[in-house]
Amino acid sequence: MTNNLEIKKTILNKIKEYDRILLFRHFRPDGDAVGSTKGLAAIIKATWPEKEVLHVNEDYAKYLEFMGSENDPVPEEKFADALGIILDTGDIGRTSSKKHSLCKEIVKIDHHIDRDPYGDYSWVEDHRAAACELVVDFYDTFKDELVMTKEAATYLYTGIVTDSGRFRFREVSGETLRLAGLLLNFGIDTETLYANLYLDEFSQLKFKAHVYEAMKMTENGVAYLYVDKAMQEEYNLSQEDASASVSYMDSIKGCLCWIAFIETGDAEGTIRVRLRSRFAPINHIAEQFRGGGHACASGATVYNEDELLQLVNAADAYIKEYKETHEGWL
Fold it and tell me: 171, 127 in Cβ contact below 8 A?
C-alpha cells in the first residue's frame, strides 16, 4: 500500500458522485494507455452498472486491437455534466481528445514526471512502472467497495507488462510485482495475451533483420535508426510497428542509448523519435526536442535531418560524459 490515501479517497468520491464518467488517455496510445482506461472503465462498470462510462479517444493502436473495440464518438452534450479522468498522460497537450476541457471536472492519474500539472484533482506517482499499476493500487486500496473482473484484470496486466518491458525496467518494484500477482489471481489467460503481444508477422521479422543491417552507432555508444516511409511500405509496417524498432537495439553491449527516428509522411515533415537507455537517464535530451517522458524511455519530435543529427550528437555527448563519470555500466 502506498501513500496518497487522501487523493485516492477524493477520486473515489468523485467517481461515486457522477453519473457519467469520460475516460481519456494520450494520443498514439500504447498498452498502458489503453489498459489503464479500459481497466478502470471495467472496474467502474462492474461496481456501478448504472453509471455511463465512455472512452473519448480519436485514435487506436492496431497492435492492441485484440483488447477489443470501444464506443462510438461521444456527442458534445455528454461532456458538460461529466467527470473526465485522464490517464497515463503527463502533458495535457497529448490527450487523445481536446474535448476534455468541456468536462465539469478533471481527474489526472499518471506515472510520468509531473512537468505539466493539470486537472482539478491530480494523483501522480512517477516512480511507478505503469499507470495501470496506479489503477490496481486504487482497486487494492478500496477493494471492499470496488469490483475487479477478469476482463479488467487482463487490461491492467497488459498495461503493466508492456510499460515495464516485461518487468525489466528500473521502475519495477516489489509493489509492481505484488499488484501484478493480484491481477493474475483473477484468471488471466497469459498464454493468449503474450501471443497477441509478441508474435510477429513474417514481414516484421524480415524488417527486424533489416534493422540490424541499417542501424548506426556513434563513437560513444548511441545506436540509432531512421525508418523512412519507403522502408515502412517495403515491410508493410504500421506506425506502431515502425516505432517498435527501437526495442530491437536494446541489447548491444556498451550501447547505453538507442534511438529510432520514424518518418510520419505528414505535411509538416514530422519525425517521431523514440529514445531508450540503460543506466543513463535521457529524458532531458527528449525535452530539448519537443518531448519528454520517463528517465530511460522518452519520446520527442524533430522535423528535418539537421535536427535529427543535433539530437544524435546531444545524446552522444551525454553518453560520453556519463561513461567517463560513472562505473558499473555494461
Answer: yes
